[in-house]
Write a structure and sequence with these properties.
single chain; 475 residues; alpha+beta; Rossmann fold; 6-stranded antiparallel beta sheet; 30% helix; globular; binds guanosine-5'-monophosphate; binds magnesium ion
Amino acid sequence: MHEKCGVVGISTAGRDVARPLYYSLYALQHRGQESAGIVTHDGFQQYEHVEMGLVGDAFDEDDLDSLNGSNGIGHVRYPTSGSVNNCCAQPFSVSFKSGSLGLAHNGNLINTDELREELAALGHAFTSDGDTEVIAHDLARNLLEEDLVRAVKRTMSRIHGSYSLTITHDETVLGVRDPQGNRPLCIGELEDGYVLASESAAIDTLDGELVRDVKPGELVVLHDDGSGFDTYQLVETEQTAHCFFEHVYFARPDSVIDDELVYEVRRDLGRALWEESGIETDVVMPVPDSGRSFASGYADAAPEGVEFAEGLMKNRYVGRTFIMPTQDERERAVRLKLNPIKSTVEGKTVTVIDDSIVRGTTSSQLVELLYEAGAEEVHVRIGAPPIVAPCYMGIDMASREELIAADRSVEEIREEIQADSLSYLSIEAIAESLHKSETDLCLGCVTGEYPYDIEGEQTDRDVQRPVVGHSSADD
Ligand code: 5GP
Ligand code: MG
């Protein structure tokens, strides 16, 4: 239910960007494994290569050699709603009267259908039902009438939802972050240019320096010659809606998001978990890899004598359990993926720590595995609140019916996963560890109240859908 694609954009002083884009996509591979793509521009024409699969499989030497130019963008896509096809692989590219456009999008629009209908009525032909194509067509249309900055501003006034975008307009690379800053996007400096990326780990990979986050509602325009960038605060925002789940699960621990090193935030969350629900135990162990930083913080806060050890080994060659279409396959995948280390577990009271429970598949299997390996007691601690509602902001988690916490109390979940005890972290602890107020976070999946106007759902703030219609667009 949460979507976490990865986007990147690079401008250099003449050096081809295909390879730095490719390395950045490798650094962002955890944000999407379904497809990978690059669009570049050499000042004369646009080049593109988009393919299904992992970054390492999507490009070969020849593909990279054919992507000319010192400006370009890239994208890795996360599979959403089980659809495995190439209709929505990105970047999306179009050529039109006033130039070529490439778009890479992380996030999800709420008013895609209204916009598509309106643009279709104006003669735009669509090849997918994705929201990225809608943004591309809207921007293309606005660019016929206005300069780049005004055109982006007009498009921003018409789209509602979450978006971190990297865009090529001919050889110019842009970055845009939605007015609530729902998805991350940051700027980095390279020896001979600048980079925009979903996460700072991609900048590190290029030996660059993190400059800062793109601000919510801000447009960043990289200079074509790699000499710098201009920024435009196109929409002023009073209240942000940063996705807390980026800090809990999606982002790499070595990334800095909104000024916080993700690893340290997760350790703080682990410490808070001990303070809120620490329980006597022989051993604290993580669910690899997602529970590791939480478990280290939790064990750190626990009294001396509590051992921190690896009690589960992960087979790193097994794909993410979520990609399995049926429950039966998902259960098999967990067993393939995790195997207990007997010496850590046998005859002991163990506390096993993970970042989140979604469907409950992982935890149920784990508890059973640990008992089979000889655990006396199995306590489960989770570094996030119960996920009770779906994500509409572009993270493909699950539908409401699939969420184990949607209609169960914590005690009912504990019973279902057959643990001796189960505790989740509070929403207050999340806000505190992120150094943000709850009202500046998107907590939709744990409260069921969203920072956007979504049909059939509640909102936690005063938001309105923009009125679609070209005549009413402001500038
Ligand atoms: P469950 O097995 O309860 O359905 O999922 C929980 C596990 O999935 C946790 O170990 C967590 O790290 C991971 N997880 C949480 N959210 C997501 C997500 O949106 N996508 C994927 N692939 N895994 C997730
Ligand atoms: Mg996990």
